[in-house]
Structures are given as C-alpha cells and as structure tokens.
Description:
Blueprint: H1 9-57, H2 64-82, H3 89-120, H4 128-149, H5 159-178, H6 189-211, E1 216-217, E2 226-229, E3 232-235, H7 236-258, H8 260-270, H9 272-277, H10 282-308, E4 310-311, H11 315-330, H12 335-355, H13 361-375
Helix pairs in contact: 1-7, 1-10, 1-11, 1-12, 2-3, 2-6, 2-10, 2-11, 3-6, 3-10, 4-5, 7-8, 7-10, 8-10, 11-12, 11-13, 12-13
Amino acid sequence: MIEHPSHFGTGGGTLWCVRRALRFALQELVQQLVNGITLGSVYALIALGYTMVYGILELINFAHGEVFMVGAFVALGVFVVLGGAGLPWWLLLLAALLCAMAVCSLLGMGLERLAYRPLLSEAKPLGAVELGVIAASGSGIWWLYHQLKGGLSQAEWWLGPAVGLGAAAAFWGLFAYLGRSGPARKTPRLSLLITALGASILLQNAMRLIVGSRDRILPEVLPAWSFTLAGVQITAPQILTVGVSVTAMVLLTWLVQSTRLGKAMRATAQDIEAAQLMGINTRLIIVIVFVLGSSLAAVAGVLFGIFFKSINFFIGFQAGLKAFTAAVLGGIGNIPGAVLGGLLLGLLESLGSGYISSEWKDVFAFIVLVGVLLLRPSGLLGENVPEKV
Length: 389
C-alpha cells in the first residue's frame, strides 16, 4: 500500500511532506557530491602536472592545460579510426589512453626541450633521435588532421613525411642558433613565465588550425548503463573517471615515495645543485617529470572527453586555470595538496552550479584563488619555504 499524506490526517500529512522534501534535498546533495568528486578527479590529475614541475623548477607550466586538450583530441582520433573495427569497449579505451599518453609525453618532452631548457641551461642542437621524433610527430599531426577532416587521398600520403622532415629541419636550425652561446645561464623567472604563456597560446592556436574552432562530439564508447543507490544515479563514465584517476594518483604517490627514481626526484626538488654533486642526472629527472605530468594530463583529457562528450581547442585553457587554482589551493609543489585541491575545487564547482547557477561555475575557481592568496598563500597543505636561489 502506497502512503499518501491523506492517510495521516492534517498533522501527519505535513510531516510526510517535510520528510519527503528532506529526502529529495539529501538525494540532490549526494548527487552533486558525486558529480563534484568526478570533476575534481580530473582537476586533480591536471594539477599534479603543475605541482610536479613547480616542485623541481619553480616554474608554472601554463602550457600544461593545452597538453590536456591534446590528449582529449588524440582520444577522439583513436575513437574515429578504430571505432568501426568492432573492438570491445575496454580495448578501445585502453588504446585511446595509451595513444594519448604517448603523444602527450612527446609533447611534454618537446616543451621542456624547445621552450624551457634553452632558458635554464646550455642549449645544444638536436640529435638524430630527437630529429626522428620530431619528424614522426609532424607526420602524425598531419595524419590526424586529415583523419578528422575525412581522410587522406592516395595522392596525399607523401605529404605527412614531408611535413615531418620540414619540422625537423626547422627545429634543427633553431637549436643550432640557440646553442651557439655556450655557457649555461640563469634566466629571470619572469622570462620563463612569459615563455610558458607563449607556448600555451601557440599550442592552443595550432590545435585550432588543425581541428577547427567548432565543438567536436566524442562517440559513445562505454556501455550505456547506470545504477541508482538510495536515489542517487551513478553512471559508467563517473565510475571510470574516479577509478582511473585514483589508480593513477596512487601509482604516482608510490613512485615518488617508494622508488629510487622517486628519491632522485625528491632530491632534485630539494636542491638541484646538491643532487648533481651526488651523481643524479638532474636533466633526465626534469624530463621524466615533464613526461609523468604530461601522461597524467593525457589521462585526464581522455576521461574529460568521455564524461562531457564535447571538446574544443579552448578546453585546455579553462581546465588549466582551474587545475592551477587547485594546485595553489592544496599547496603548489605538494602532491597530496594537488589531489586535495582538485577534489575540493570540483566539489565547490558542482555545488555552486547545482544550488546557485551553472552560469557562475567558472567564477567559483577564481574566487577560491583570490581567497587562498589573501588568507593562506602557501595553500592548505603547503609550507612557507624560502625561495631557491
């Protein structure tokens, strides 16, 4: 028998309505919390890249958001190319993750080699291996561009290698010029910041030229199922996003805290010159940090595309600023702080969108940023430490 307020009389009917309203309010709150944790997991993955690079170089890599965006578009390319091959969804997803991580790792290495290393130390002309990587990357970009545009004609297949070789020759000439000065140099932090912003603008507009400015819709990859727990709906993309994010963050924490590579990374972050005197190849450690951060951004890009479906060339700028805010909120340079900041920011944005207005969702991140900088500049888990000299 279904209860109805008329069954309880006047007083009972009022109590029934209050209980029902409270139950709906609680379900709505829990639903917003689930959505916030999902979004916060993506922010946390991106924020880890910011905080790892800052911990070693004290550099805010503002191009990191564009690496995230490239990862989302690589996933789109994989889904378009392999979507009709009849592969199971988990294999298609794994291929997208691996391809995005590989491409974004190369992109992170390129940013470190092309944009930052010439300002931090002696720049040498590119070697044969690096030239080959650039050539392959140029060919891959050309191929991806035409796949998204509708495919290459048989007469155009030779253009991909030609574009790659042209890029290799151009970069070799650039670094032959940059490497002529010889001795290492100490560049002002402002120059590094401007370079990071320039690299961000370059990547953003390059992707706009490659894929266009309109939104792209990712195809349905995951099985269309969900379940309801106590009135709260949980979908497959949400479970996947949180599960993959937590796994990646746990593996990164284990790598940094429990391995020799992690010990070398922590030593380099604490004192780069002392680490060099102890025999640590700090240049290799810096490259590895860029690779790890870019791989996490690639994973975040794939998960973002699967969860939100729509991507464009501008998502990296927006997500990058929010992830930077998350890193500052938790304490930039602190890995647990980046995770905490990402989750808190995702929860705040989800609750604000649900209870205030979705049009204000991008404002909440900057309110938090201003508040943290005013009240606790070191972040929630950060410590006030003297600047490295």
